[in-house]
Design a protein that fits this description.
By secondary structure, this protein is of the alpha+beta class. Helix content is 14%, strand content 35%. It has four helices and eleven strands, in the order H-E-E-E-E-E-E-E-H-E-E-E-H-H-E. Strand 4 and strand 5 form a beta hairpin. The chain starts with 9 loop residues before the first helix and ends in an 8-residue tail after the last strand.
């Protein structure tokens, strides 16, 4: 007859838990995702800010790319979690066209196709576009970001985001401080009086105008 194991002392139990946690939290390393050094599949855009309550700075523009999930290694941990990053964000240059208009060029092939995981070449899909402004109000920057999907820009040619004219931060004292933005579907449900409290940021593939 098998003898039961003696109960673990509190010290032994803590040591066992610590060992298990340290094993789970070991530092992970991932391949370095690389931007395409010579992208060709370009999508020029113009960003227009209408009726802003303050001067409009040059925005920072970002494109987020998603890697082909079949390229990632199979999940082999007990948590059932894919730890390898499946997205990568790239900043692209924006230039001023006027006091309220800016141009930029997005690239569908902005990421380098490479064998990052030894499972064959990894392809990428652009999924998200951001135009982020640091508006100055009361001598402090308030961030407002217009978000849209890359696919929407390709198909619908225009995406509009609405910003509260008061540029109130969501939480006070943050660094940086962010003001909430709303999509056009939300704005269209407002009353006419409520709409006056917002100003639009348009991201469009309609690229009339030339750079200064």
């Amino acid at each position: 007859m098998l003898k039961p194991f003696p109960p673990l002392t509190p010290v032994a139990l803590i040591a066992l838990i610590t060992l298990a946690v340290s094993g789970c939290n070991k530092e992970r390393s991932y391949p370095v995702y690389r931007e395409n050094p010579a992208p060709k599949d370009a999508l020029p855009i113009v960003i227009r800010v209408n009726d802003a309550p303050v001067d409009v700075p040059v925005p920072k523009v970002f494109v987020t790319y998603e890697i082909d999930p079949l390229c990632l290694p199979p999940i082999n941990n007990y948590e059932g979690v894919q730890y390898e990053p499946n997205q990568h964000k790239v900043e692209v240059r924006a230039q001023r066209l006027s006091t309220t208009e800016f141009s930029s060029t997005l690239f569908k092939d902005g990421m380098e196709v490479a064998n990052y995981y030894g499972r064959g070449p990894c392809t990428w899909t652009p999924v998200l576009v951001e135009a982020s402004f640091a508006f100055i109000i009361d001598d402090r920057p308030i961030q407002a970001t217009a978000w849209t999907s890359f696919k929407k820009l390709e198909t619908e040619k225009l995406s509009t985001t609405y910003v509260d004219r008061a540029l109130r931060p969501m939480t006070s004292g943050g660094s940086p401080e962010w003001t909430p933005t709303e999509p056009s579907a939300w704005y269209e449900k407002m009353s006419q009086d409520k709409r006056k409290e917002y100003f639009p940021i348009e991201v469009s593939t309609r690229t009339e105008g030339t750079a200064q």
